[in-house]
């Protein structure tokens, strides 16, 4: 037998819902405050819950914890979408952050206010990671916190589908926006300095191959000799090494691709193939042997800290991420006139907008002559418009600059006006 009544109790209007499920008595009391508004809200809530309270699912939802929901969500995490790496990331976030913070908490007690407090802790407090590893010792970055909140929202949306959650509180919490850092693109002279700083031949080969092919860190670490076609001057991206697996599938379907290799590196690669330590998979760049003498891919941290950053410091260059070498490759493709669509294929981008975003980075020393080309096409050059000139363009620029009572360009203040006599002389 079930009942749902409205009554005034202890200075507030409440609903009292009760029923019997599997021989057990279930009861729910919710308060809505005093006054006519509280009474109306209580009656509306009673009308909403009365039919639901007769079902077993309703009471399961009232007693379900986040851990219960996560268990169901985790059970349906199968590939190919999301991919293995994404699934591993989901589970790591749940293990380190979600379950320790809210695993035993009832779903009905997780609201937007709770999640906003949780977000603030992640952004300001260190040591929240439930793991034996120390980590950076700093609070999480806005990007990492946004990923955690996104996963919470994904879990609650799944909860609504299976009728275990009534709403998605994460939808009401604003995700922190990560500040986008400018990508530092090495100039040719700086690339030469970096090359000189890489004294170990295989390290120099690894960096140069990355710069000229745009391979990701995992792709270069997982590269095997069977995927190298030295005669055809190309390589095949078929597998990658990740922090979780030495032999993993590429990031996306577009990551499976054929990449051209510059001809000048072919002799270097042939010499390295003869000297390269042997591994079970035939890795092109194997790491140090472990306690059992087995060599796996070169360690990701070693690749960044011990190899790249050491060389950058020696060359007097700013610290860069290994992924910045990939941005450099995209920029070089743009400078070389490689069409964006072909660059997308070489870099393995799923979306050409990513490629076009990289193409916006231009070498700092390169003059942007797009306006000159446009003027030439429009017939607005000195030759195109048949304007007679007695001096060089440099002379004209110098003469015009002398007409400015102050610094030229956008740095000129409102009081720094042009000399009208100079201008009239040029008419």
Query: CATH superfamily assignment of the largest domain?
Result: Intergrase catalytic core
The overall pLDDT average reads: 81
Give unreliable regions as ranges: 384-393, 399-427
Count of domains: 3
* Count of alpha/pi helices: 17
Q: Strand share of the residues?
A: 5-15%
The main pleated sheet reads as:
3 strands, antiparallel
> Within the largest sheet, what's the order of strands?
1-2-3
CATH fold category name of the largest domain: hpI Integrase, Chain A
Principal-axis shape? elongated
- Which radius of gyration do the C-alpha atoms yield? 32 Å
CATH architecture of the largest domain: Orthogonal Bundle
Query: How many strands in all?
Result: 8
Give the helix/strand class.
Answer: mainly alpha
Report helical residue fraction.
Answer: 40-55%
The SSE order reads: EEEHHHHHHHHHEEEHEEHHHHHHH
What is the straight-line distance between the termini? 99 Å
In CATH's first tier, which class of the largest domain applies? Mainly Alpha
Describe this protein with a few key phrases.
DNA polymerase, domain 1; 427 residues; hpI Integrase, Chain A; 3 domains; three-stranded antiparallel β-sheet; disordered C terminus; mainly alpha
Describe the secondary structure blueprint for this structure.
Blueprint: E1 3-9, E2 12-21, E3 24-31, H1 35-52, H2 56-63, H3 66-75, H4 84-102, H5 112-124, H6 142-161, H7 188-197, H8 201-213, H9 217-221, E4 228-229, E5 234-237, E6 257-260, H10 266-275, E7 286-289, E8 295-297, H11 300-314, H12 323-335, H13 340-347, H14 352-359, H15 370-377, H16 393-402, H17 420-426
Antiparallel strand pairs: 1-2, 2-3, 4-5, 5-6, 7-8
Helix pairs in contact: 3-4, 8-12, 13-14
């Amino acid at each position: 037998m079930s009942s749902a009544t409205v009554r005034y109790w202890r200075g507030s209007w409440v609903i009292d819902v009760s029923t019997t499920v599997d021989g057990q008595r279930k009861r729910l009391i919710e308060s809505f405050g005093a006054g006519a508004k509280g009474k109306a809200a209580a009656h509306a809530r009673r009308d909403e819950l009365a039919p639901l309270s007769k079902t077993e699912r309703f009471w399961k939802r009232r007693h379900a914890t986040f851990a219960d929901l996560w268990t169901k969500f985790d059970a349906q995490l199968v590939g190919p979408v999301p991919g293995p790496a994404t699934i591993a990331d989901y589970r790591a976030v749940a293990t380190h952050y979600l379950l320790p913070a809210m695993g035993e908490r009832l779903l009905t007690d997780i609201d937007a206010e709770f999640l906003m407090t949780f977000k603030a802790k992640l952004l300001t407090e260190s040591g929240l990671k439930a793991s034996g590893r120390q980590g950076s010792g700093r609070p999480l970055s806005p990007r990492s916190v946004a990923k955690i909140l996104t996963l919470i929202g994904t879990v609650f949306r799944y909860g609504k589908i299976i009728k275990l959650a009534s709403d998605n509180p994460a939808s009401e919490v604003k995700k922190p926006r990560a500040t986008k850092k400018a990508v530092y693109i090495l100039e040719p002279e700086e690339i030469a300095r970096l090359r000189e700083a890489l004294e170990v031949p295989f390290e120099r080969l690894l960096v140069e191959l990355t710069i000229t092919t745009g391979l990701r860190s995992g792709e270069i670490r997982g590269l095997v000799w069977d995927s190298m076609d030295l005669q055809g001057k190309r390589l095949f991206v078929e597998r990658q090494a990740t922090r979780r697996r030495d032999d993993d599938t590429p990031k996306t379907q577009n990551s499976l691709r054929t990449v051209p290799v510059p001809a000048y590196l072919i002799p270097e690669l042939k010499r390295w193939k003869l000297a390269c330590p042997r591994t079970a998979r035939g890795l092109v760049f194997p790491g140090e042997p472990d306690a059992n003498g087995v060599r796996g891919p070169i360690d990701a941290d070693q690749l960044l800290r011990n190899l790249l950053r050491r060389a950058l410091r020696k060359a007097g260059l700013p610290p860069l991420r290994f992924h910045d070498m990939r941005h450099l490759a995209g920029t070089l493709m743009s400078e070389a006139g490689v069409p964006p669509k072909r660059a997308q294929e070489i870099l393995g981008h799923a979306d050409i907008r990513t490629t076009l975003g990289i193409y916006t980075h231009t070498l700092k020393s390169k003059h942007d002559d797009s306006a000159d080309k446009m003027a030439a096409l429009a017939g607005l050059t000195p030759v195109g418009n048949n304007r007679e000139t007695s001096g060089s363009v440099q002379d004209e620029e110098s003469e015009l600059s002398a007409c400015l009572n102050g610094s030229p360009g956008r740095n000129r203040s409102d009081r720094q006006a042009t000399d009208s006599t100079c201008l009239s002389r040029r008419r």
